[in-house]
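Fill in residues.
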């Protein structure tokens, strides 16, 4: 679950290993990572490279996070890592890590140098250059069209149809590659928050576990496409935060319970996050970002050639990155609503929850509100309105699943917010 706004938290580290002694170090009792389904309580062992000179892995984990530090709700969206413990993958990973930033930065540098060079030319010199370009425009057009054609063929050959939504998506990241980077991100997360993991007997596990189990059991038609066990880990931290790793591992911070005062609200959050995993949004994001960053080299150079630095940065994000983010968030909202409906939760709470989030954001906001087109996520108000427009379909799904009829929407903790926003509850099923 994530808020509107752009704040990227990059964790960069570099581990250089010289004659390492590799040990499995098990976390002590307070760092046990509990699992609700499929296995018993166990200790998580992390591999540490013990050397005379030890830094950390070269890992970058990208979180989408609220610009308001008091309400930090984020989800892992992109994972890029380089792991030195797998020599067979080291060279390709190293080339990718080095080549990618060089390609992007190189394009920007060339564009800026060209801009300065062009500005110093006389009108006659500019006219000569433009005439030469016009003279060879057929060759330029041929090369451009050929490149676009090859890129389209490559893109088309890597399209997959989502079994849940029917939408075609571009996927070039292989499952084993996604598993590798997910595991590295998980290890880094546990390294940072391992001492905050609540013990298995904490009542929070029972509540979250019951909601997760109900969602999974009611949506086996979707869950059968993967073989995840959906282990749950709860972090004792006041951050309002929850997310699901691409392999199904669920993380929730205790601060989320302050906002999710009912199981219907908790189901709204968890169904949204589970939807990101079921829809393979991380793999799609990685694939799109990798492909588009190569495809957009020329447009990127044009943007940086024509616009000032700040304008180029903003334009680059608005055109190439942010629309994909918002589309995935909306898709996860809609699929999450269907997961809730099949599990017989009160789906009418979902749009009301996002209005509650909007109020919380307004209360905690410092400075002007960010426009949606500058954000990775739709605004809370638009998310609520979109879910309200899908309410009839969700209520029909509840009927098809023989759920008990819904009574009046009366939730004491939510009604003041409903009155404030003049919310009219949906018609009971």
């Amino acid at each position: 679950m994530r808020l509107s706004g752009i704040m990227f938290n990059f964790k960069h580290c570099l581990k250089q290993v010289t004659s390492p002694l590799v040990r499995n170090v098990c976390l002590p009792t307070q760092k046990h990572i509990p699992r609700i389904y499929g296995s018993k309580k166990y200790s998580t062992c992390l591999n540490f490279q013990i050397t005379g000179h030890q830094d950390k892995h070269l890992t970058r984990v990208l979180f989408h996070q609220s610009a308001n530090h008091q309400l930090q709700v984020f989800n892992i969206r992109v994972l890029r890592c380089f792991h030195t413990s797998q020599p067979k993958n080291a060279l390709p990973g190293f080339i990718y890590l080095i080549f990618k930033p060089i390609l992007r930065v190189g394009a920007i540098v060339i564009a800026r140098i060209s801009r300065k060079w062009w500005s110093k030319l006389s009108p006659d010199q500019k006219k000569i250059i433009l005439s030469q370009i016009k003279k060879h425009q057929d060759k330029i057009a041929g090369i451009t069209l050929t490149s676009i054609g090859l890129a389209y063929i490559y893109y088309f050959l890597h399209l997959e149809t989502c079994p849940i939504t029917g939408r075609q998506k571009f996927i070039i990241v292989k499952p084993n590659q996604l598993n590798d980077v997910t595991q590295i991100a998980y290890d880094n997360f546990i390294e940072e928050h391992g001492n905050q993991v609540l013990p298995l007997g904490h009542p929070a596990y029972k509540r979250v576990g019951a909601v997760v189990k109900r969602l999974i059991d009611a949506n086996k038609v979707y869950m059968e496409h993967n073989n995840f066990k959906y282990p749950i880990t709860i972090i004792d931290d006041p951050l309002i935060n929850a997310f699901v790793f691409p392999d199904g591992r669920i993380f929730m911070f205790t601060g989320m319970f302050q906002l999710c005062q009912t199981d219907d609200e908790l189901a709204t959050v968890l169904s949204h996050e589970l939807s990101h995993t079921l829809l393979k949004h991380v793999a799609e994001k990685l694939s799109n970002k990798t492909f588009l960053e190569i495809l957009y080299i020329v447009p990127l150079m044009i943007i940086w050639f024509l616009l000032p630095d700040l304008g180029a940065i903003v334009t680059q994000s608005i055109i190439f990155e942010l629309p994909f983010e918002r589309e995935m968030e909306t898709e996860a909202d809609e699929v999450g609503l269907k997961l809730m409906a099949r599990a017989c939760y009160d789906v009418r709470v979902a749009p009301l929850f996002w209005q509650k989030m909007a109020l919380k954001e307004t209360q905690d906001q410092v400075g002007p509100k960010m426009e949606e087109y500058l954000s990775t996520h739709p605004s809370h108000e638009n998310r609520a309105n979109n879910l309200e427009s899908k309410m009839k379909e969700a209520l029909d799904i509840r009927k098809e699943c023989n759920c008990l009829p819904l009574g009046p929407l009366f939730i004491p903790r939510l009604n003041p917010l409903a009155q404030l926003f003049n919310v009219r509850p949906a018609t009971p099923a």
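Residues 2-98, 310-320, 414-429 have pLDDT under 50 and may be disordered.
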